[in-house]
Amino acid sequence: MSNFLTISDYEPDEIQNILDLSSELQTAAEPVLAGKNIAFVFEKPSLRTKVGTEAAINHLGGNVIHIDADILLSSGKAIPFTSRESLKDAMKNVSLWCDAVFARVYSHQTLKNMAGYSSIPIINALCDKHHPMQALADLHTLQQQFGKDKKLTLAFVGDANNVAFSLTELLLKFGHTVNFSGPEQYSWTDDKLSYFALLAVQYGGEFNTVTEPSKAVENSDAIYTDTFISMGEEHLYEEKIKHFEPYQVNEELFSKAGEHTGFMHCLPAHRGVEVTDAVIDHPNSWVYKQAENRMIVSKGVFATLLDGEGKATKKPSVPHLDKESVNGT
Questions:
Q1: Of the candidates 114, 124, 121, 64, which has an alpha carbon nearest to the alpha carbon of residue 89?
Q2: Amino acid 326: pLDDT
Q3: Of the residues 75, 116, 176, 322, which has the maximum number of CB atoms within 10 A of its CB?
């Protein structure tokens, strides 16, 4: 049994095995999850993560059981001085009935707690620190466009958030270059910059912070952005947006890149805020391919964890790094 909580837990060859298996299952969906029950626990709203992954599990013959997050995570109060049930008791029960838990939560610590009490795999559907499933779909998209062997340069323009972290982490592990450009007030902490530097040294990639977004996108193979205001940050809109306005991916910025450069966004997109219509609807926009790949890579992840074939083994990627601080755990 293994979990899929962060990109840091896996080596590039293990990730590539998952992506290769995803491609195989896309064209010849075998019922490798027949008889398997996967519990979905979502604290945050979702379209691609929920529907795409449920469709993937259905394609592979598995079943999805939706558990109300308030019940499992004990956020409701049954009586004034206690919660409904401890997470330990809840996870011990779910482990008796289900074969895995797919959880989309506010705090990464919640996932760690769930994994600590569980005897079945816990898969991170998104948390405040990481979005590994999205990163897999993004790498799969890039490999579809450029092949597996070409070393790429991706410009991430915007917020140093969970999507940016998992994507940067994964691309550096595959030896690619990431140029990040965003407001200094919302950029990476020193420990994360040190982590990226170590990954670059270990795997042969390159990470750069670039003040001007126009410089960041030069010679890039893809330009990526995400919402400037993450879920739960809506109250910060007025404060954040004034810093992020210069980082909108618009026609002018997109024109600074090459004709082959693609546009990427994990969605949902706020058109007219972080990206304009002309860019997201551009022929070189890959946003819907990324969305399709959310379903496709889910097949590889669940088949790897649950059918016993090609099972990934967790290994520390950077042994000298304090991952507790980097992973927010």
A1: 114
A2: 58
A3: 176
Q: Which has the closest alpha carbon to 180: 140, 149, 153?
A: 153
Cα–Cα distance, 178 to 75 (Å, whole number): 38
Q: Are 293 and 53 in contact (CB under 8 A)?
A: no
| DSSP letter (8 states) at residue 281 | T
Do the beta carbons of residue 214 and residue 222 sit within 8 Å? no
DSSP H helices, the chain, are 12-27, 53-59, 69-72, 87-97, 108-117, 132-146, 162-173, 190-203, 213-216, 237-244, 251-254, 277-280, 287-306, 323-326
Cα–Cα distances (Å) from 263 to 48, 257, 275, 316, in that order, read 18, 10, 10, 32
Q: What is the pLDDT of residue 74?
A: 62
The predicted model scores a pTM of 0.91
What is the reported pLDDT for 312?
38
**Level-2 CATH architecture, domain 7-130+294-313:** 3-Layer(aba) Sandwich (3.40)
Burial state string for 149-166 with b = 16 or more CB within 10 A and e = fewer than 16: eeebbbbbbbbbbbbbbb
Mean pLDDT over each residue of the chain, to the nearest integer: 90
- Residue-wise pLDDT tens digits, 31-85: 999 999 999 999 999 999 999 999 999 999 999 999 999 888 864 444 444 567 8
The CATH number for 134-290, chosen from 2.130.10.10, 3.40.50.1370, 3.90.420.10, 3.30.300.30, is: 3.40.50.1370
Chain-centroid distance, C-alpha 267: 12
Residue 308 is predicted with a pLDDT of: 54
Domains 7-130+294-313 and 134-290 equal at CATH topology level: yes
Whose structure tokens read 């990109």? 7
Three state DSSP letters for 36-85: CEEEEEECCCCCHHHHHHHHHHHHCCCEEEEECHHHHCCCCEEECCEECC
